[in-house]
């Protein structure tokens, strides 16, 4: 009996999982969304004030040795073929998870090194913790205190600043390209 269940499970995986990546689901997710918070510079950040219809929210830190630069490079590669008009349809929002070392200006320069249509923010630790919780992101300082283990999702927000997709670090750049194109064309109904 257990062997039959195992075979059914394996069959399901081989028959149905490959199809999961073939379409782009942009359903509204119950995490993330708009952020209204005061940055370390004293400026209020409200994601709804950005004119771009698509925001790609990413958590990281400027001392990150691998995932942060790789993810930003992937976003850059995914959008290199965009026309000037298409480049105005999205913005990358980089939120530092290391407010002790990352000043607001540093976070902004870091992300703009990769993409000119990006904004980097650093909030105080309490606000950072609230935003991380809102997005259900994982952040934990390593034992050496110099780096972080953190989730590497890109949160795709629509024009209403509702989270419509989580893009994994293992997803291809085509997923980023398609998510921006679909959401910026207003072909997805928002509630």
TrEMBL record:
<keyword id="KW-1015">Disulfide bond</keyword>
<feature type="binding site">
    <location>
        <position position="68"/>
    </location>
    <ligand>
        <name>Cu cation</name>
    </ligand>
</feature>
<feature type="disulfide bond" description="Redox-active">
    <location>
        <begin position="64"/>
        <end position="68"/>
    </location>
</feature>
<dbReference type="InterPro" id="IPR036249">
    <property type="entry name" value="Thioredoxin-like_sf"/>
</dbReference>
<dbReference type="Pfam" id="PF02630">
    <property type="entry name" value="SCO1-SenC"/>
</dbReference>
<keyword id="KW-0479">Metal-binding</keyword>
<feature type="binding site">
    <location>
        <position position="150"/>
    </location>
    <ligand>
        <name>Cu cation</name>
    </ligand>
</feature>
<feature type="domain" description="Thioredoxin">
    <location>
        <begin position="29"/>
        <end position="185"/>
    </location>
</feature>
<keyword id="KW-0732">Signal</keyword>
<protein>
    <submittedName>
        <fullName>SCO family protein</fullName>
    </submittedName>
</protein>
<dbReference type="InterPro" id="IPR003782">
    <property type="entry name" value="SCO1/SenC"/>
</dbReference>
<feature type="binding site">
    <location>
        <position position="64"/>
    </location>
    <ligand>
        <name>Cu cation</name>
    </ligand>
</feature>
<dbReference type="InterPro" id="IPR013766">
    <property type="entry name" value="Thioredoxin_domain"/>
</dbReference>
<comment type="similarity">
    <text>Belongs to the SCO1/2 family.</text>
</comment>
<keyword id="KW-0186">Copper</keyword>
<feature type="signal peptide">
    <location>
        <begin position="1"/>
        <end position="21"/>
    </location>
</feature>
<dbReference type="GO" id="GO:0046872">
    <property type="term" value="F:metal ion binding"/>
</dbReference>
